[in-house]
């Protein structure tokens, strides 16, 4: 697997990305060189305000994801995030926080994503809030990232813009129809992996990678 690398396209508000996280972590532990790229799918024009209809739709999807992946979606998340009046569905701030965490070491993006996903789907925190995100980063020993996020550092904003643009370009180039998406590269050749492989058995996923 030494010659194989993977780029994981995601959005921090994507429940399916949360569901795929354990499998991505297993790939990394197996020695696959993995990189995390945001797509900005649910920020900017893709953002919206939560309402009862969208909350019900999201919860229904989340229950399916939980059955397939084993990842928990708590009642705190349902009551404090989905069913809270005026909650935003906007991944812009969370994406910026993940970029901030990985400025010095891109692998820290995975740590920040895992932290933010747990905060939303298990603890029921509002990860559209910069203050909440900064507290999460600080508590995880990422104080410099928290400072850059709070100050909206010019360097951070530019790095984030570049990462999202790179993620969107890769997303379009491979004709992905959503996230999570995993682009496998071996010997200079790229291929989009069928996302369903992230929700099957680990052995099946490894078989897909070897065939890539």
From TrEMBL:
InterPro entries: DSBA-like_thioredoxin_dom, Thioredoxin-like_sf. GO terms for molecular function: oxidoreductase activity. CDD domains: DsbA_FrnE_like. Gene3D superfamilies: Glutaredoxin. It comes from Rhizobium paranaense. Residues 10-197 form the DSBA-like thioredoxin domain. This is DSBA-like thioredoxin domain-containing protein. Pfam families: DSBA.
């Amino acid at each position: 697997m030494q010659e194989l690398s993977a780029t994981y396209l995601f959005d921090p508000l994507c429940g399916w990305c949360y569901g795929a996280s354990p499998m991505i972590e297993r790939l990394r532990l197996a020695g696959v060189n993995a990189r995390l790229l945001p797509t900005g799918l649910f920020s900017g024009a893709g953002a919206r305000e939560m309402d009862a209809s969208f909350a019900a739709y999201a919860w229904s999807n989340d229950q399916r994801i939980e059955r397939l992946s084993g990842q928990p979606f708590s009642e705190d998340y349902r009551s404090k995030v989905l069913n809270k009046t005026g909650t935003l569905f906007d991944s812009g701030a969370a994406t910026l926080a993940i970029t901030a965490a990985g400025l010095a070491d891109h692998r820290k993006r995975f740590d920040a994503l895992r932290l933010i996903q747990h905060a939303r789907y298990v603890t029921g925190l509002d990860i559209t809030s910069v203050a909440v995100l900064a507290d999460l980063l600080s508590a995880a020993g990422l104080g410099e990232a928290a400072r850059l996020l709070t100050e909206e550092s010019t360097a951070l904003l530019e790095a984030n813009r570049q990462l999202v643009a790179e993620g969107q370009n890769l997303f379009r180039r491979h004709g992905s129809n959503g996230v999570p998406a995993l682009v496998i590269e071996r010997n200079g050749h790229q291929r989009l992996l069928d996302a369903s492989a992230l929700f099957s058995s680990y052995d099946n996923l490894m078989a897909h990678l070897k065939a890539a």
